[in-house]
Amino acid sequence: MTQRKTLEQLLQQHQQQAAPAPNKDLWQGIEHALVRQPQGKANASSVTKPWFAIAASILMVAVLVSQWWPKNTTQQPQTIYELAQQLNQTQDQQVELIKARFEAAGYKAPSGNFAESLANLQQARKQVTESLMKSPNDRSLLEMLRWVNQQELKLLDQAYAKQSRLQQL
Amino acid sequence: MQQLDTSVDHEDKDIARAIAGDVNAFQRLYQTYVGKVYGLVLRLCGDRSQADDMVQEVFIQLWQKLANFRGDSKFSTWLHAVATNVTLTELRKQKRWYQRIIKAGQQVQQEADSGAMDLSELDRYVMKLPDQTRWVFVLAALEGMRHEEIADQLGIAVGTSKAQLHRAKQLIEEWANHDAA
After folding, report:
1. What is the per-residue pLDDT across B139-180, written as a single tens digit (0 to 9) for each?
2. Where are the domains positioned within chain A?
3. Are residues B120 and A14, on separate chains, in Cβ contact within 8 Å?
4. By the number of CB atoms within 10 A of the CB, which of A100, A111, B117, B121 ranks highest?
5. Could you state, in order of their start, the residue ranges of all structural domains in chain B?
């Protein structure tokens, strides 16, 4: 029979055991995001030229979209559902533009697990939007939609970052 | 001692370089601290795949906030505070919609998954605690934060923090005794 353990004993054991480590290399995703979102004061001298060009293009697109977005809504959305539809439209544009920029720079469209996860996120977006149609003023659904959209952009970045790493190797 | 001083000196230089935008210097800081940050984030999340994403988010936000580091405290202390803040903020944001849609109101307890072989026995129990109870236990018992700080961080009363710690200890001992029987 095993001896009963107190919390103190568990804590002692815990301190002696090696800390858990991540299952995969997390740096490449971080590096890619850093390149895409440089610090306020940071210079981007360590960034390779193609990446800098792509990051600059994405930034420019984001600025253009953000400038276009509020001004173009001459008809203010009446419900959160309408706002969600506009968000989706902007999201589609951003996704298409990011894909176009990367593919113009010689990258392939995401495939395998990345493609599957992206499809799942698009499905989630569709489901949330449908739920919003039934509850057109539900703010928590809108929040969820924003989160799903952010994840889609993040995943897209990761998919291209992985290709970049492989190309370097 | 001289070696320690040298590594601290190198770290100071890397911090300065990273603040100036040197990604390689930031990568060295990442390599030094990723283990500690991962342990903290994994325990707060209670989920490995979520912890991976969260650690990336922590370091991305750290990069953005580096210029705010004034050297008033040790870098590791400051990093720990940033990691705790980012993780808890993200977890609370995600929890609201995640519970509502995906789990449809069901309180599903996280089970230690099959990839938990490198976890200590205590960590495996920590993963099973309910969210708020786990956060309080990790911050109080493993990270040594005071109840006042935890209450402030989590937006709860000091008494609630104490009660959650008590509950966590009870649950962990109960599970440990059950497994030992």
Report:
1. 999 999 999 999 998 999 999 999 999 999 999 999 988 887
2. 47-168
3. yes
4. B121
5. 1-108, 111-181
